[in-house]
Amino acid sequence: MIVRRLFDATSATHDDAPANRHGGYAPIADPLPETQAAFSSPSKRNGRMPAETEPAQLAAEFDTLVVRAGLTIPAERRRELIAAFADLRAEIARLHAPLSPALEPAAVYRLIASDAGA
Amino acid sequence: MSAAPHELSIAAAGRELRARHLTAAALTRHALDRIAACNDRLHAFILVAEARALADAARADAELAAGIDRGPLHGIPYALKDIYDTAGIATTCHSRLRLNHVPSADSAVADRLAAAGGVLLGKLATHEFAIGGPSFDLPFPPARNPWNPEHITGGSSSGSGTAVAAGLLRMATGSDTGGSIRGPAAYCGTIGIKPTYGRVSRRGVFPLSFTLDHCGPLARSVEDAAIALALMAGHDPLDPASADLPVPDYRAALEAGVRGLRIGIPRAFFATAPALTDEVATAFDRTVALLRDAGALVADITLPDYALFAAANRVILLAEAFSVHAEDLRHRLPDYGRKTAERLVPGALVTAADLVQAGRLRRHLADAVNRALVPCDALLTACTLAPAPRFDAPVDPRAAFSPVQTGAFNLTGHPAISVPIGLGAAGLPLSVQLAGRPFDEAMLFRIARAIEQLSGWQEIPLPTLKAAAG
Lengths: 118, 470
Hints:
- The complex is a heterodimer.
- Helix content of chain A is 40%, strand content 12%.
- Chain A is built from four helices and two strands; from the N terminus they run ββαααα.
- The A-B interface holds A 21, 45-47, 62, 65-66, 69-74, 77, 80-81, 84-85, 87-92, 94-96, 99, 103-108 and B 211, 307-308, 310-312, 314-315, 318, 322, 326, 329-330, 333-334, 338, 341-343, 345-346, 348-350, 353-354, 356-364, 366, 398-400.
């Protein structure tokens, strides 16, 4: 069990994020409204999130996802990795333009009948 | 023979070898001496396999003397990016994590080039795991640009670009997941081709992103690159992505010119990009004018926003790369270079929905490129939007601001080639990029050869070792 404390600088309060390294689970206990919104708001979870996110909120999301992934980030690398995360989130937002439901992923493939043994 | 051995093209050196005017041993000794003269400054090679090279050369000389001819690479020196497995020779990926890794088998490409009688000079620098760097916190220093060692080479096939541009060899292997062949080729002034996805086996090449990784050569000239790709390409049943298609003679139409060919320019890709410099824009327009004068039919076309290609490429790349590195990132994160970690860790934060959405967009964008290539024989676009930056002036690698516009064709799988077109004001190479129909690398070589001739690139002397050695 890993417990990561997520500090919200705006409200000067914190969340505790327990996580299971092997299973990759990270439930959020006692969520702050701001942090909860980052995870549950449909407008944010579908990627159409604002380009600018509060730094503390961004850091909280980063910390939780990192714990869920089973990573331990050295303190001296945290700042640069949060910046990289912020950049990636902005880029992900570009992907979530409405697409036709009929548009399937490139990874969808077709099977070809084998004549082996015929 | 009047030219220095390193100035001979692969084909010309082959003729000299067969005419007994030159031996593979002498050609190899010359290359080893040039490496010894400048590698301390340029850091192209991580490992120089001198004993292996001399043995390969001796074998080639003996075989050629006995009438055994393995083809155009027989007796010709080459080197491998250090993510290509080599049996009995360390393959480190330029990383502390794999310093002691000595593969037991060759990668498919290493096997092919050895079977073709090539002379393996050694292993070349790369950005760590083909994604980090240029970095100074790794076990080996970063390769430097021979045109000015204060400038970067681009990556991740950094040592390959340096080695070819410095005249240490005529061809080297690279890998390209978002531009890692074409970027260093452009910054260093070499030819660099990312063939169609599936054209070259990835077996035994350390993966970065399974669906975006491509293997291909960097070479001094278009003809050298055509020879190199022909030898690297071909079906490999042990690579699940390998295409079971014949490999054509890429040299057959090299000199056919561009008269009547239709070339589309997706100008919006680069024309308003913040990183585009005036000298690249001017050189691009000059190239278009040269192609028109030579009879090509050149017209602007429309493709979806480049930022969409870049974003989908990045999300897929990061997610797939994280799946490769997850265990090491969990247990050995401090052993990665800072830049590598900075690029790999965000892959842990991509959601399943993000990845699927990127995959859906990928199909949409590939279809758009396919449609654009129905009326066009090839697309012409910028490659790097500025000359190589200095080590002490790092550029923003984020896709929206990236000065390298190559990832679109990794995403779609279409073949693409970087072609040098001249030197900028600071004496650093400028380039353009061509993309073509799936498995029509021959058309790219044909147009690239025309550009090579029209731009006079081959008449521009290589940077001298004296200057490069500082």
